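Example record

The entry below shows one chain as it appears in the dataset: sequence first, then structure tokens.
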Amino acid sequence: MAKKALEELTADMENIHIEEVEIITNPLRALRDGIKFIPTIKVGDQTLSGILLSSEKIEKFLNKAEQQ
């Protein structure tokens, strides 16, 4: 659900690159990136995570991250 919403919200944003990290095969990378919950969206040092991430939450997070 979060992946689909993220892809839809960033479709027109050319400066956004989405990288999906599989934590089962890359546990050290997930730990190094501070990912403790699935799903997690990370922009710089900021993270957004939750069981159900709505499009609105994701959009608000991306807008906030883009302003910084």
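Notes for this example: The first strand starts at residue 40 and ends at 43. The longest helix spans residues 55-67.
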